Amino acid sequence: MDKTVLVLGATGGIGGEMLRQLLAAGWQVRALTRGETQPEHGDRVAWLRGDALSRADVLAAAKGCAVIVHAVNPPGYRHWGRLVLPMLDNTIAAAIAEGATIVLPGTVYNFGPDAFPVLAEDAPQHPQTRKGAIRVELEARLEQASTQGARVLIVRAGDFFGPRAGNNWFSQGLVKPGQSVRSVLYPGAPGVGHQWSYLPDVARTMLQLLTMRATLPAFARFHMAGHWDHDGRQMTGAIARVVKQATGATPAIRRFPWWLVALASPFVATLREMREMRYLWQTPLRMENARLLAVLGQEPHTPLDEAVRTTLEGLGNLDAAGKKNAPGLPAR
Fold this sequence. Notes:
Layout: E1 4-8, H1 13-24, E2 28-33, E3 45-49, H2 55-61, E4 67-70, H3 80-98, E5 101-106, E6 118-119, H4 130-145, E7 151-156, E8 159-161, H5 169-174, E9 183-186, E10 194-198, H6 199-211, E11 219-223, E12 227-229, H7 234-247, E13 252-255, H8 258-264, H9 269-276, E14 286-287, H10 290-296, H11 304-314, H12 317-324
Parallel strand pairs: 1-2, 1-4, 2-3, 4-5, 5-7, 6-14, 7-11, 8-10, 9-13
Antiparallel strand pairs: 10-12
């Protein structure tokens, strides 16, 4: 059962990408789901009906598993602060029972300005947001679990983007899925660097570390360098290049309307979350990956323009542009 894995959150961004890459690498994959199974994977995945909030469901699903990928979030991200920790506690209980390794996709939310501008794995965790405080507690509980028979692998990365990345700044802020890209809305302050991570690269990094898990500490944390946008223009520039190559038109680069977020955030939970994280667009924060390089030798890294093209194709942006400019249809 050394290559049997349970994926929690398999229908989400990072969970789904991990599932695809684990299958390709020959793992026996189980996935816990509240809803319908995903037909794209056929019978290669053992889909189990259950809820990550039910300890009995998680314990049963994890029976005999060597690894549990914890990439689950509450449905629709509702009641995030109240439900995230109980979900993790269920995963921890299952991992301790099975002697399994927990894989957690980490973020930079659990760090405050005292850890900036270059972030190492062991930097002090003094967050200034509610979500950051929960992230600190998540990692603290995992560290405790690593002393009780479970093993833990945390891979922290910057803002996700990718063809199936789920909720993220790229598809919720910079562009609009399913629409041609006439303009790119950039949330960052001029000249301020920002950390991005291409989701398939993140999953590939986790998978490579998993193959070496027996040689890693029981509680192991790694940072990915990902794509460092040193002046806030590299990502928007890549989007503009890819769109021009595909359509012949160059999109305009515009400032993200933070004023509108401020007005609407009292009424929309997603906008409140976006506003709370605005500080990450106002302060440069670069992740140091020396520890990862020491273990893997190199970090999986897809060239930026290639990653952006795949992302825009996956979001339907380039298809939408092609349809609008096809012969017989008026260009907009």
